[in-house]
Amino acid sequence: MDLWWIFWLAMVFLAPLILMEISSTFKFHFKIISYCILCLTLSALAAPVCLLKNGGRTVDNMRIIRAFVRTIKYFFGLRFKVRGLENFQFDGPCVIISNHQSILDMMGLMEILPDRCVQIAKRELLFAGSVGLITYLGGVIYINRKRTSDAKSIMAGVARAMIDDNVSSDTCMLQSLSRGSNGLSLF
Ligand SMILES: CCCCCCCCCCCCCCCC(=O)OC[C@@H](O)COP(=O)(O)O
User: Where do the TM regions start and end (predicted)?
Assistant: First the structure.
């Protein structure tokens, strides 16, 4: 009986494990690619849940997206430590300005994301397959960074919506997700 297929199947699973032991560069890229594939897969799973629960594009879907994203840490054996959560208590509407460095930070963001928090992101995200779809369903507002006038008018619209929502400078919170700030830090 030809058992070569078992050998090749085993190699498909074993080769990455062996290469990860040998090369830290491979390990890094393998993990990043796995992370992206996981994001695409979870987005594809979360999209129908969002549509069934909330019917379309709404910030309420972010609760569902947040729950899906929070599972990613278990795939990679990660644990998050949040420092300064006492500075992150607020009653009314507010603006959160977060500093992030890569797509990996999204996991940390989702650990502390408050309910009904409308996010602003670069427009390119809309074209990221199922991730684009999930950001659309989650009510993300897109900014075209290549067209400053468009970006400005979108931001002006956001500002008007915030004024309508009674967000004043008193309720603005300047928080940072990066290390070393006085606000909130994620490790
Ligand atoms: C269920 C799995 C879902 C996975 C993805 C869900 C994502 C939902 C939240 C989206 C919020 C993302 C905020 C991104 C903000 C943004 O757009 O940052 C741009 C920066 O990077 C700078 O980019 P660059 O200059 O190209 O390095």
Answer: 7-26, 32-52, 125-143
